[in-house]
Write a structure and sequence with these properties.
2 domains, mainly alpha, 12 helices
Length: about 375
């Protein structure tokens, strides 16, 4: 691994550490402490509105996804965490929502640029994804114990320090990306294109992943299901860590013995069975853990397929991230209404189960050219 790739891994690790501590644990815990389950859902939807709008604007423009985009996105995350610190001090939901908006600006701009960076640096996406999950296990558990013992404020301050350190490195290492002459997009994702196969698949993937993530947060933090005698935030950290471990291990094992064309079907089967397990309290824990394994099997393969599908449609920019954010955003109000009306695991099961069935249906009815894409992936 050359120095460029090592620096990219290091910078992403710092940003990920801030994300796990200040957003996944600190931000959502703070939102729940201030406004309960409504605070959780409100934080998620404000973030997703901003993320979808940002990725949509970037997708519609001819902007070059260079290192400056990443640097500016991290600065937006810094502003978000400053709002969270204000929320910690004043206990007002408005600061949480403002933090959510700026985190959405970060999400909508960071990931398109970061994926472009990976492509320019010839990074192995599956290897990076494994590293991301492995480091996430340690970070999420450390954040959960930290916030329980020392509180949200200190955790947010620590998260800020990670981001500031990342910005210092970015400012000194701008040469790790060489944009060269960027190929401008000939076409951008339009409304009619959202009904094309790759856009639908990315939409449903975002819908499912966000539904799983928010269901896990709401059910654990509200105490709907108690996993252990530990505080809810420790249980949440433990579930996310175990899920992440499964998500890293299952694809790594299966891809060694199963070809991609069959691996997708295995991932769909795991995801579908796991979704069914979410219906019962006795199996909910195993279902929420294993569904992460199923979606982790699907993620790298579907990402490549969606990106290649957009290439065949002559669509560039960041159509995958835009479509995916649309799906994430669409899932929130559906899940929120289901949760407010019912308030049990059944409400989250319905949303996650629906998303799983739709993904299976779309995959089973995929266009003929997908077979060519599988051969393209294997080559």
């Amino acid at each position: 691994m050359n120095n460029r790739k090592i620096k990219i891994y290091g910078i992403r690790w710092l940003i990920q550490a801030a994300e796990k501590a200040g957003w996944t644990i600190g931000g959502y815990k703070l939102a729940y402490e201030i406004s309960g389950d409504i605070g959780l859902l409100a934080l998620n939807i404000t973030m997703l509105i901003a993320a979808t709008a940002t990725s949509g604007l970037l997708n519609a423009s001819n902007i070059n996804f260079n290192w400056n985009i990443i640097s500016n996105s991290v600065k937006l995350r810094v502003i978000s965490f400053l709002f969270f610190i204000c929320a910690w001090q004043f206990e007002e939901l408005i600061f949480i929502l403002c933090g959510g908006v700026f985190s959405g600006f970060y999400v909508g701009s960071f990931w398109p640029a970061f994926y472009k960076l990976q492509h320019q640096s010839d990074m192995n996406f599956k290897l990076w994804n494994c590293f991301e999950k492995a480091s996430g296990i340690i970070l999420i558990m450390a954040a959960a114990f930290f916030v329980e013992w020392l509180g949200s404020g200190l955790l947010l301050i620590l998260s800020l320090s990670f981001l500031l350190f990342a910005l210092i490195i970015i400012s000194r290492e701008e040469d790790i990306i060489s944009d060269g002459k960027e190929t401008r997009a000939k076409n951008h994702l339009r409304w009619v294109d959202t009904f094309q196969y790759p856009a639908i698949l990315a939409f449903l993937e975002g819908f499912l992943n966000n539904s799983v993530s928010i269901s896990r947060l709401v059910i654990i933090l509200t105490g709907t299901i108690a996993i252990s005698d530990q505080p809810e935030i420790i249980s949440l950290g433990g579930i996310i860590a175990i899920s992440t471990l499964i998500g890293a291990a299952v694809p790594g094992i299966l891809e060694r013995i199963i070809e991609d064309r069959f691996l997708v079907n295995i991932g769909l089967i795991i995801t579908f069975i796991s979704a069914l397990m979410l219906l019962f309290e006795s199996t909910w824990f195993f279902g929420i853990v294993m569904i992460t394994g199923g979606t982790a099997v699907l993620f790298p393969i579907l990402k490549k397929e969606v990106e290649w599908g957009f290439e065949k449609l002559n669509l560039e920019g960041c159509p995958r991230e835009y479509s995916r954010n649309q799906g994430r955003l669409f899932s929130n109000p559906i899940l929120a209404v289901a949760w407010i009306v019912d308030g049990t695991i059944f409400s989250t099961f319905i949303v996650i189960g629906l998303a799983t069935i739709l993904i299976v249906f779309v995959w089973m009815n995929r266009p003929v050219w997908v077979e060519d894409e599988v051969e393209h992936n294997e080559n």
